[in-house]
């Protein structure tokens, strides 16, 4: 098992002061970590906590986490009926995820979700439409077999899908035939055959809902929540296999220790320094206020949603305030929350910035970006820091602490 890096997060005090607006921000250290990890159950949390040096999760006996109560239905019982696998790629379960009835803010309409049965590792691949699923799956198989060609030589053995047209095409059939891959099609009305895949995707969607509700993030950002859900699930212990997490099980520790101290709460305020080409003119302030919506899949960076632009950027030039949730008091957020708890039938739509419609969700009390010390007071004027060194800097402290923490972001792989 890959080493799990300790949580040397000195920026988090043991008790976070409650915020004036009340209600949503975590108030104790274990509540903060419960939120950062996407609301895992106590057993999973405590297992991970032991590995990375956190205290056990001690929820208040007088209250319950409203996000958990809202996002999670009755937990399904029983074990997943995978056949016994002994290595990555032996059995992969593939499904299309989409049709959430929410208008998206980007042009990916659905997601290919791929779950490796041996490690329980999730891959989430955005697609422009369902027809793109075939080629995306073929590309993924090539990529993974390439990756493992010098790391054990694992090959895809069996692919399990449902009977959807995108999985029964001749192209895919011929590809599987040429590679010697077995294609298992689940029978639509056979619940035992479908059970494993359905339960796997229910887990993913449950985590996605927890993130949206916990951060009061409107559901048109569901694709960000889905990516982040997979990212977190890949790092949380799997209960039947308490000795490992999917990430370590899949990659075998090949990419160094898995670090947790860069996790931040989904939906919290993110103060990002935009690179010059993305700014609105030379006089625009370099720091914009956005929303933390996950982690980059191919670089050490966070994904930050900027409401005014209705776009998400990846950056490591960012600091966070985990007591502020900028999209919380917006109409779209309230509407989504009401819908989640069954109090309202309507669904909010994504803002349409490109069509000239003003963004409806910027709250009146949108927090101002904090003032930071100038770079020259942090970095010695000479020799100038190299562009590479600058790109690995992360502001890791709460913005009101008025300090820079130029530490490397420790996220290895997403
Ligand atoms: Zn919770």
From TrEMBL:
It holds the Pfam family SH3_retrovirus. One of its GO terms (cellular component) is nucleus. It catalyses: DNA(n) + a 2'-deoxyribonucleoside 5'-triphosphate = DNA(n+1) + diphosphate; Endonucleolytic cleavage to 5'-phosphomonoester. Residues 388-399 have a biased composition (Polar residues). Its main location: cytoplasm. Residues 368-399 are annotated as: Disordered. The keyword Nucleus applies. Keywords: Cytoplasm, Nucleus, RNA-binding, Transposition. It is found in: Cytoplasm; Nucleus. PROSITE patterns: INTEGRASE. InterPro entries: Integrase_cat-core, Retrotran_Ty1/copia-like, RNaseH-like_sf, RNaseH_sf, SH3_retrovirus. Residues 84-254 form the Integrase catalytic domain. One of its GO terms (molecular function) is DNA-directed DNA polymerase activity. Reverse transcriptase/ribonuclease H (RT) is a multifunctional enzyme that catalyzes the conversion of the retro-elements RNA genome into dsDNA within the VLP. The enzyme displays a DNA polymerase activity that can copy either DNA or RNA templates, and a ribonuclease H (RNase H) activity that cleaves the RNA strand of RNA-DNA heteroduplexes during plus-strand synthesis and hydrolyzes RNA primers. The conversion leads to a linear dsDNA copy of the retrotransposon that includes long terminal repeats (LTRs) at both ends. This is Integrase catalytic domain-containing protein. The gene is KNAG0G02840.
